[in-house]
Amino acid sequence: MGGYFQELGKGREQGKKTAWCTSVGPAELLRALGFNVYFPENHGAMLGASRMAGDLIPLANARGFSPEICSYLTSDIGSYLKGQSPLQKMGLSGPPKPDVLLFNTNQCRDVKDWFQFYAREWNVPCLGVHSPRALGTLDEPIIEDVARQIEALVPPLEKIAGQKLDPAKLREIITLSRKCTDLWKAVLETCANVPAPMTFFDGTIQMGPAVVLRGTQVALDYYEALLAELRQRAAEAVPAVPGERFRIYWEGMPVWGKLRDLSTQFAELQTCVVASTYCNSWIFDDLDPADPFRSMARAYCNIFICRSEDEKEAYIERMVAKFKINGILYHDAKTCPNNSNNRYQMPERLDAKLRIPHLVINGDLNDLRLYSEEQARTNIQAFVEGLAQK
Amino acid sequence: MHYYCGIDIGASSAKLVLIDEAGRIVAKALRRSGVDYAAVAETNLAEALASAGLRREDIARTVSTGYGRDNVPWSNGRLTEITCHAHGAWWHFRRAITVIDIGAQDSKVIVLDAAGRRAGFKMNRKCAAGTGSFLEEIALRLDLPVADLNNLAERSTKEVTLGSFCTVFSATEVLSKIRGGDKVEDIVKGAFQSVVKRIAEMGAMDGDLVMTGGVAAHNPCLVRLMGESFGKPVHVPPDPQFIGAFGAALLARDNVQTHHV
To answer: Does the distance separating the beta carbons of A372 and B259 come in below 8 Å?
Structure first.
């Protein structure tokens, strides 16, 4: 990961163009055109995990970005306004300036607003894919629409890149991405073992290469090594949480500034958060080098956050069975309505179907003003006490 | 004879209960939690031991609960107030109940089956709406001792509505009601109704309702309003403010697996 950021920092002197891309956007197309690809959401997560966000979000609030909107956006813009970034610890002055910004609204509208701020600030082009959301079945007209939108990006991106798209290169990148995603999926699936060899909290860190380096060989090397280690741990029944009593599914965003506290609390309660929707969001089973544009369209429309309530429920049902889940924790992230799935009665519907209990904790991905430590701690402990009564 | 101790250090007050092997309360102690939870636990224990004529070594086991549960050095185990309130309340009724506990900083709705097993629970969200702190804030705005609220609300003759979710905004609403000439007793009853509404929003209230906590202990008018809201009687166990401590003592007696750090 360090090497990736170093490369980003050297882009301009090496004559490479830089593209900013949403984390579940068509990064493969950008890589095939020779761009260095930078992912602002990854920067947002770093601002949260480093707890720098607390000082930065108010700066964006003061410039007209509501405290109610995505706190990745407000953290990141606050970081820009203050000129402070965790990337400075890696020798960069901050995020690399883009030559183009490329969003995909498959997650939310906020990514577009976020990118457009920088487009205006730096007068650089901002391109995008407007994906339909709340999708049930992925019907052909939808895939066709999104595939055409991605294809339509090629001419303007070629112009900015100063090179033509090489179809063979695109197929190669998609092949690498697909391999990366398959390995990442296998890594996460090791947690179906009892006891699980890794926790969700580990996963939020280990997923870095799947987000920012998919489509590269280095990501494959990393996940091959990680998978081998986890499989060995699973075979030897080495637990991530010693004395694992209960297995939890985490639905929604991480609370980035509280990873350690939450991880420690669950470990003390001998309870392992073994799986999550979040870490699974970088599994793209549909990527297919034989059909680049349509398969990218399908892969990026198929992500959980882009699906209907019925599809999301069916997905969680499968996860609960696969990972032998005792209870589901929903994180209601105040500034991330699109990835807070407790708000339209899903927990109650799944309770009735699955007959396993759920807990909702109120919080946020980055804005710890919206997180009550004591309430979360007591809720989690009480939830586990309830599991022990079953 | 063995005795068991339950101590519930809440956001506002610290409650301690000693029980005997049959689950009978032999002593209680209550004082404000203050800022030194270990000290208040010690003082409460000393007071309860003296009142029951017991020595420290007569206490076989202690379970602590509440916000300060991790700050009782001599506790043998820690359990959340959700588990302890539920168990304490169920012990009095022995049937399927929904427990509504209104504490100083949080409100809880806990659903129990006939065997006392928890079927679900909810705590209020981050803010103080629907909690004892809300009533304290309103009392402050009205320049009244909290202890006077119940008698005032009982005298109310007119409906006054405080509509906001937010305690601070509700306090502002109170100011506008005062300016508008509403009587203090009607505003206080409006504040009670606001607490009832915040609780009603938390979850479906199935089965028999039981209220516990300091707010229920001191405000029978609010308990009655709660019952009127749900169209059924609301039961209040003996010593409702001590139910968490009592439940903790029972769980200490039953040696239930607790959280050790």
So the answer is: no
pLDDT at B257 over 70: no
Flag whether B149 is in a domain: yes
B114 falls within a domain: no
Phi-psi region of B96 (alpha: psi -120 to 50; beta: other; left: phi over 0): beta
Chain A CB contacts of B122 below 8 Å: 360
Confidence of residue B167 (pLDDT cuts 50, 70, 90): confident
Given a cut of 90, whether residue B175 has pLDDT beyond it is no
The model's pLDDT over A13-39, given as tens digits with 9 standing for 90+, comes to 899 999 999 999 899 999 999 999 999
pLDDT average, residue stretch A188-214: 96
Torsion of CA B152, B157, B163, B165, to 10 degrees: 30
Q: Nearest residue of B to residue A266 by CA position? A: B259
Q: Does the beta-carbon distance from A375 to B120 stay under 8 Å?
A: no
Does A228 lie in the same domain as A114?
A: no
- Measured N-to-C along each axis, helices A40-49 and A53-62 cross at an angle, to the nearest 10 degrees, of 120
Residue B202 touches chain A, beta carbons under 8 Å: no
User: What residues of chain A lie within 8 A of the CB of B87, using their CB?
Assistant: none
Domain that holds residue A323: 171-389
pLDDT, average across residues B29-56 = 97
According to DSSP, the β-strands at A18-21 and A36-38 are parallel
Whether B80 sits inside 8 A of A357 (CB atoms) is: no
User: Does A150 lie in the same domain as A181?
Assistant: no
Q: Is residue B19 part of a domain?
A: yes
**Pair B11, B78 in one domain:** yes
- Predicted confidence at residue B203, as pLDDT, reads 84
Q: How far is B86 from chain A (nearest CA, A)?
A: 11
Q: Residues A204, A252: one domain?
A: yes
Is B109 part of any domain? no
**CATH code: domain of residue A301:** 3.40.50.11900
Please name the residues in contact with A141: beta carbons below 8 A apart, sequence gap of 6 or more.
none
Tell me whether residues A378 and B83 touch, CB distance under 8 A: no
Q: How many domains does chain B have?
A: 2
pLDDT tens for A268-314 read 999 999 999 999 999 999 999 999 999 999 999 999 999 999 999 99
Structural domain harbouring B79:
3-83+242-253
Give strand pairing partners of B9: B14
Closest-CA distance of chain A to residue B125, Å: 7
Same domain as A193, residue A130: no
| A276 in the same domain as A136 | no
Interface test with A, best of B83, B112, B202 (most A CBs within 10 A): B83
Residues of A in contact with B123 (CB under 8 A): 375, 378-379
Q: Which of A141, A164, A187 is the last residue of a domain?
A: A164
> How far apart are the two ends of chain A, measured CA to CA in Å?
43
pLDDT of B113 strictly over 90 = yes
Specify the number of domains making up chain A: 2
Closest partner residue to A375 among B79, B83, B123, by Cβ?
B123
CB contact under 8 A, B126 and A362: yes
Helix intervals (H) in B26-147:
37-52, 81-93, 132-141
Asked if ipTM goes beyond 0.85, one says yes
- CATH code, domain with B144: 3.30.420.40
Which strand ranges, in their side-by-side order, compose the sheet holding B13-20? B25-32, B13-20, B3-9, B59-65, B77-78
Sheet of strand B208-212, all strands in order from the earlier edge strand to the far edge: B118-123, B107-112, B97-102, B208-212, B234-235
A210 and A279: one domain? yes
